[in-house]
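Q: Convert this sequence to structure tokens.
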Amino acid sequence: MSTKQIRNALGASVLALSLTACASLGGGGDARDTAYIARDVETLYANAKMRLDAGNARVAAPLFDEVERQHPYSPWARRAQLMSAFSYYVGQNYTKAIQSAQRFLTIHPGNKDAPYAYYLIALSYYEQISDVHRDQKTTEQALAALNDVQRRYPTTQYAADARLKIDLVNDHLGGKEMEIGRFYQKTGKWLAAQIRFQNVLENYQTTSHAAEALYRLTETSLALGVPVEAKKYAAVLGANYPGSEWYDKAYDLINRHAAGVTVS
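A:
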């Protein structure tokens, strides 16, 4: 789901703003925009919305926060909380986006916009996913948040998008397991490597890494002196990925081992 679609989904329930109020506000966006100045709620909200629409999300976010701070009991405060979270997300301040969305859910758990708040939390984690060479804690948080959206609101557009992203996240986590397994192989830690490759088959079998994992298990089984297991993995590889490069390699590996060629 694109940023525009996200904004439209949220904007559908935003209260209409007075054009007169918007017209009375100046442009730009410096520190004076977020300084404490007592303003009526409509003018303050309109100022924040105008900054967001102009692409200045980093200024808009604290202005939406100011709506709640100055007018905590106004109906606009609830909307401002969610718009603040969205603005922080657009401005790539994902930590604050998560905090703002979680605050909204704490105060308004049954609100009709709760699905969007959960989705925004998931997106904020998802956008922080690092490459497979780094720690995957954020990736795991993204997966948990995306699963939460799917579990709570399975029939919404947010759940549909979450399901697509879950597949990508699982592929990412599977890639991390493969990277660690290959490292153990290179250092001769065959059993540790095998455990990682088995984990890919158990938890990420629908990802793009399954075929290679079966080949690597063929390799590690031979290295551990268990050719029966190696043949089993090669057979599964052939049954599921008969035309893949990994099956060709496994077939060659098994034949070389049967011929007495040292495999390591």
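The chain has a mean pLDDT of 85.
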